[in-house]
Amino acid sequence: MGCFGKKQLGEFRTVYCNHNVPSGQQGVVVADTHKGYADNVVVTSKYKYWNFLPKNLFEQFRRVANFYFLCIVIVQFSIIDRTPVSPATSLLPLVFVIAVTAVKQFYEDLLRKRADREVNNRDAIVIKGREEKNIYSKDIKVGDIVKILNNEEIPCDLVVLSSSEEDGTCNIMTANLDGETNLKIRSSLQETSKLLLPEDLSQLVAVVECDHPEYDMYKYNGRMHIHPKQGGKAQTHSLSITNLLLRGAKIKNTEHVYGLAVYTGKETKMALNQKEKTYKFSTIEKKMNVYLLFFLVLLLIIAAIYTGLKFQWDETDAGKAYYLGKTPDFDAVEVVVNLLSFLILFNYIIPISLYVTIELQKFCGAQFFAWDMELYHEPTDEPARANTSDLVEELGQIEYVFSDKTGTLTENDMQFRQCSIDGNKYLEVGDKLKSPDSTNDKGVDKSSLSDEKMKNFFIALALCHTVQADEVKPEDDPVGTDTTDGSIDDRTTPVTVYTYQASSPDEKALCEAAARYGVVFRGKNGDFMELEVCGKPERYRILHTLEFDSTRKRMSIILEKEDNGQILMLCKGAESHVVNRCVRGPSQETLDHIDGYAEEGLRTLAITSRHISRHNYVKIDEQLTSASQAIGDREEQLARVFDEVEKDLDLLGATAVEDRLQDGVKETIVSLREAGIKVWVLTGDKQETAVNISHSCGHIKHGMEVMFVTQRRTGEAASEALTECEHTLTSQEGVVDGEEKEFALVVDGSTLAHILPDEAVVDQLIKVSRQCVAVLCCRMSPLQKAQVVKLVKTCKDKPITLAIGDGANDCSMIQEANVGCGIMGKEGRQAVRCSDYAFHRFRYLKRVLLVHGHYYYTRLANTVQYFFYKNIVFMLPQVLFQTVSGYSSLPLYAGVFLTCYNIFFSSLPILFYGIFEKDLKMKTLHENPVLYKDIAKNERLSWKSFAIWFLYGIWHGLVIYYGVLRLYGTSSFLPHQLGYGLFSFGVFTFTLVVLITNFKMALMVHHWTWFMHFFIWGSIFFYLIFILVLCAFVWPWPWLNDIYAMDIDLDLYNIIYMLFNASSFWFALILISVVALLPDILFTVLLKAWAPSELDRCQKCIEVKFSKGKYKVKFRGYESFENDPTSLETV
Which CATH architecture fits 376-409+664-732+740-850? Predict the structure, then answer.
């Protein structure tokens, strides 16, 4: 393809171990084969030193406001002779904003560079020749054999060749990758596990063929061709994720490991997973861009009107006055120049510092989120985490919450409770299994496990899993045994105890249950699984493991029993995907038991087995081996083989495991509902289990009518069911027993699969679900969860959605939702890594939305409105001044005021307002969810709210301009007015603009802190000092004359002192400020009195009653007590 083309990738990646070429391939140049592979230099920084400036400027000028001001500056320089104000008045604020953002981004990138340097310069050990050599990590190449020591971090993605363990296994911890702290086992091929010395490994002739680099950390397809030293046919062995060590993981409890580098640097799975997520735009950001567009259009309209009025004025007698010189000709060039002049003059109505202010406020908001001790989880010593600061305000706009069940609403702490064995139902009572139908049943325990079918059931539980067993060091455990005479024998017996680690809490619970009843899993030894069955050891050789996947919803393991060579397949999974594959066993009785367990809210699995003849196994082995050695379509081939193998099963029974609800789940769901947020539960559990949990957690309330759209096999059937739901909603809506009738909807994954392809049926589903208080979707695949979220998010009303989950199967819906929240649970940290915000418990969601969401949204919404307001106040006098200056483009304000207004005199108060403002106390917001409705639907940035702020700006600008103009038009200002002219008029007007906009800021504040006092009154004080110094001297420096037209600005000399000497100036400041702000105060008071919102009522109806040092807060039936009455300062 040449240097400009994309490199053509082959079917798979080829790696030569230690760069050795097999015999018969002498023509292969390893360096050429490996040439296209990335080096091991880690680069997470965004910029290089040489490209920081151009790249950063390009990114910043992609923003509408920044690009707009850049255009204005260019226009000012292009018509430098005709520009009404110096280009510096636009250039300096633009440079300031760009510089602040650039410095922030440069510092962040500098930290990333330092981290990269530390990683790249770590020591690494590789085999060169026949010995080990130390190099830098960045110098590792694909094909190198790398040695990693215990507790060292893995520097690149490696295929395990051997380890200090005889069987070639090693333990790794992947906390840096997925947050899981439990150890995982990785293993080498048996053929390479005996290569323990550098000289042996250096002579290994092997070629690895594997996938091209991809981001999925749980997938690796490859094969290794091992060539004999003496020549001959190579042996081919399949490689999977169990043979791969990922960069970022750590070696644990293993002296050393040798591995072959297959992916390095930016091609490692860790690096590929560090790519930036799709940027999500918040509601406020979208609305802000709409308002910017509105003001740009308004600016163009005003400039066009004034251009026309200027040419009209030029034709009047006043416009043809002799001292004005010759009137320019009316032509296209003159029209454009005048249009641009007015655009330049009025461009300050666009708030240039808005973006940088919003960014700083969001950044601080994200820090407050992480610092909130109410979201801190003490048992794990983990605070909440904000993975992005871009969406903090979106937490205040949520309309739909989509929640996973297991690990999100529940503890994900599984406990074995009941089981069905050979059609018989058993309960666990203490450490015994008892039949619920027999009152005289003494039960079965580890000492009385004799029934073969029961024994086979527990053997299946102890073998069909991916659990790791750790042997606890034997200790003398006093065991009291009854003697024949009734006394207690105090002899001590050494007891071996095993602890289990598993990625699935279900598997751990089942393994522990089997151990309680005498079938103890003792761990793996090479290819063998070791059991202790009623005190007798048994060994099973692992032939194949058919891993679980969400499509099959089952997993299987094929074993060979060591003592008799019998081949056995054990399979467990969801009854809907397992029982129908059984040809023997009490299917109906077991299904009835499973339905009963589900109604109790228990999680169920069907357990099956299959005896395989040696002849059939040979065929199965060939199929599985062939499919497992495929690279490009391994998953598809394995799926076909799995489907063939997992059939003709014998049903052994079923298990029922309890996963109890987390604390506070019910209260949280009730609060979210009161806040106007609809909660959908999306789970992979069967219908009965999901419905039971929904009832117990308050998702489906008592008295709700539950409608079912389940088990529909066609789109037409699903449509008919939804039509029936519509009829039910229409016929039964109304009030029952004084309360409005409420409905819940239950949909399953199989029916949803028929709904989604048909747009008409999808519309029916949306219509029905919008009228339901609760929606439950069961038997959902991960993809379907994301599809449901997208379905709601993209419907006509475009509601703001939040998805919350704890497992890898929730990642798709978390990323699909407007806001994604991850629960730091027990299923790894994949959901946390791909989320926007993460915390430990579902109950924290209440505080996240009702408190943090409320604060962030109100702060930022008011910030946006205030920014546009203050610039209207600033620019309106400038616009009106043109009507009395012959539309001459003459500026009212001195250039220095145009430069400094948005940066120094009005930006700091609103910045800290957006960080610290609290319109209500946290406790009040937390205890009154109804307040959340007040800010729903982007209420604070609605066109109605915008119109009110717009009118405030217009009124204040009119009062300031005409107030000052009226004063100047009378003889009441000073006896000697000859010294007062344009520049004193401009200073007077600008002083009022600074005062009134800061007074308006003070009226907005509910929560007064020393920050707010300092920056509001400090801004006014700073302006006073600034104007006193500015007007005190005739500034002599040449550069000021170049930047600001000093022949004009020199007229500011002594202006403020003359104004201060006039008593009418001080009177006018007070009078105009009062007249400007009085309607704001009256409107606010009357609005709160006549049409109060819930928030207004809460602020108004708080009654402080001192009684023994306490006060009582009453609000619409809610009551709360505090010991500190001074904490009402926020009201």
Answer: 3-Layer(aba) Sandwich (3.40)
